[in-house]
Amino acid sequence: MEGMPHPIPRTVEEVYGDFKGRRAGLIKALTTDVEKFYQQCDPEKENLCLYGLPNETWEVNLPVEEVPPELPEPALGINFARDGMQEKDWLSLVAVHSDSWLLAVAFYFGARFGFGKTERKRLFQMINDLPSVFEVVTGNGKQSKEQSATHNNGSKSKSSGKMQSRQLESHSKGVKMSPPPKEDEDSGDDEEEEEDDEQGATCGACGDNYGNDEFWICCDVCERWFHGKCVKITPAKAEHIKQYKCPSCSNKRARV
Fold first, then answer.
1. Cβ distance 179 to 200 under 8 Å?
2. pLDDT in the model for residue 5
3. Residues 126, 107: contact at Cβ < 8 Å?
4. What residues contact 2, with CB distance under 8 A and at least 6 apart?
5. Is the peptide bond before 68 cis (omega within 30 degrees of 0)?
6. CB burial class (10 A; 0-12, 13-18, 19+) of residue 33?
7. For the whole model, what pTM was predicted?
8. CA-to-CA distance for 52 and 98, rounded, in angstroms?
9. Among 67, 101, 126, 138, fewest CB within 10 Å belongs to which?
10. pLDDT the model gives residue 166
11. How far apart are CA 162 and CA 68, in angstroms?
12. Does the pLDDT value for residue 34 go beyond 80?
């Protein structure tokens, strides 16, 4: 149980310093002190929480009894899941909840002391420059945002929303860019991809044939192709869609 023995941060810099201290303590618990942390999270005990303290230490303890608590509380009962999953998965789960708690505490202080839009934005940018606890624990902290973007845009062309734009095709392999080829098109795609693409030779909304200069998108459920303009999807918007469902499939899902 943490109590409030530490000075209460009131400025952006002080809140950030508090965040860094708590974060360092949590990382220590989940990495260098992991054996001690694991032993303390006995499933036979009551609901336990992992606290990161501003002085870069950590503790496993029962939640505070006061309601509402002085600060946002960490995830409750982390010990109960310990023996029900692999250790690395359990540690990753605790790390995710720890990241959420750290942000909750930081922005609790921001709200309590009246941080405005500018202060909140600056605080988030300072926090965002640090790898998350989850990234450190799982070893993903070294991956830059640039590498992440490249991975997301270039390695999963078959797994999620199939979209295409002839104009973009020459510049990028495109995660979601995969135009329905004409019969005389000589590509290296396998037979399965050709069969999928042939189904989208005409727009599922207006019935018109594929146009060379038009943006198309394929529904991941019914695998029909649509003009972007017919379903109100732009190439920019399509880049942020992991799995596209056409209006018809979306309506069917809603009725169930």
1. no
2. 56
3. no
4. 51, 53, 59, 61, 64, 71
5. yes
6. middle
7. 0.55
8. 8
9. 67
10. 38
11. 48
12. yes
In the block, which residue shows the tokens 């300072």?
Answer: 126
Distance CA 150, CA 197 (A): 25
- Per-residue pLDDT of 211-228, as tens digits, reads 777 888 888 888 888 888
Distance CA 152, CA 175 (A): 7
Q: What CA–CA distance (Å, rounded) separates 72 from 110?
A: 13
- 84-109: pLDDT as tens digits: 889 999 999 999 999 999 999 999 99
Token look-up 């209006």 returns 247
Is the pLDDT at 229 greater than 80? The verdict is: yes
Short-list 21, 9, 96, CA closest to 53: 21
Block residue for tokens 């510049």: 171
Structure confidence by residue, pLDDT tens digits, 122-169: 999 999 999 999 999 999 865 444 454 444 554 444 334 444 443 333
